[in-house]
Specification:
Blueprint: E1 15-18, E2 21-24, E3 38-41, E4 44-47, E5 77-86, E6 91-97, E7 101-111, E8 120-125, E9 128-131, H1 135-140, E10 151-157, E11 162-167, E12 172-173, E13 177-182, E14 189-199
Antiparallel strand pairs: 1-2, 3-4, 5-14, 6-13, 7-11, 7-12, 7-14, 8-9, 8-13, 10-11
Length: 200
């Protein structure tokens, strides 16, 4: 015949062994087992922390991983507008962002009174030169889509001397992004455009 508590639940005591001593495992008021977890750092045991909801979190950015794949950043978009006069024969900074983040998209538009297809729109990420091809070179190489280059042709009119490039998405930067313009023509040019990006 069944035996036990009146509600047919049996009563047991669970214990853990510490050295040679068995110690009963404690529960909270809901019956959940309470645990104190520790991890070894060198030869020292350190308590593993949780947040206010009891969730244990890991900082995977400091792990020794050969590769880390992350989802794109959502939201927090910022638009950086560009309208800068670039003097003849000089390289001018159009926009600088000092932060960590990623580029959603951008463009540069350079209308002029003289042929300036040899001018170079320039993109730097974290002080590294990413793209500096001239309007003419991008056109000659038929780089017209975002997946074909970091910068690509979106406007090329060698009659009205209007030129433009798009700046491809998904570029990430750890500390800095810069857009510059190398004006190789004999006249000043006002460069228009914008960069849509998000910082972390």
């Amino acid at each position: 015949m069944p035996s036990g508590r009146p509600d047919w639940f049996g009563t047991i005591v669970a214990a853990g062994k510490y050295d040679t001593t068995f110690i009963p495992i404690g529960l909270d008021e809901t019956g959940a087992i309470l645990a104190l977890m520790k991890g070894a750092y060198d030869s020292v045991l350190k308590t593993i922390a949780v947040d206010s909801t009891g969730v244990m979190k890991a900082n995977i950015s400091v792990q020794d991983l050969a590769e880390l794949i992350m989802r794109p950043k959502y939201g927090a978009g910022t638009a950086g507008d560009i309208q800068v006069v670039c003097s003849a024969g000089t390289t001018t900074t159009l926009l600088t962002v000092n932060a960590k983040g990623m580029i959603y998209w951008g463009h540069l538009y350079a209308p002029g009174a003289v042929d300036h297809q040899t001018d170079q729109p320039i993109l730097y990420l974290d002080e590294s030169l990413i793209s500096s091809q001239s309007f003419g070179t991008l056109r000659a190489r038929r780089i017209t889509k975002p997946h074909e280059g970091s910068m690509y042709t979106i406007l090329f009119d060698d009659t009205l001397y209007d030129y433009g490039v798009g700046i491809g998405p998904q570029h990430t930067f750890e500390s800095k992004v810069e857009l510059k313009y190398n004006n190789k023509s004999a006249e000043s040019i006002t460069v228009f455009g914008g960069l849509i990006y998000a910082t972390i």
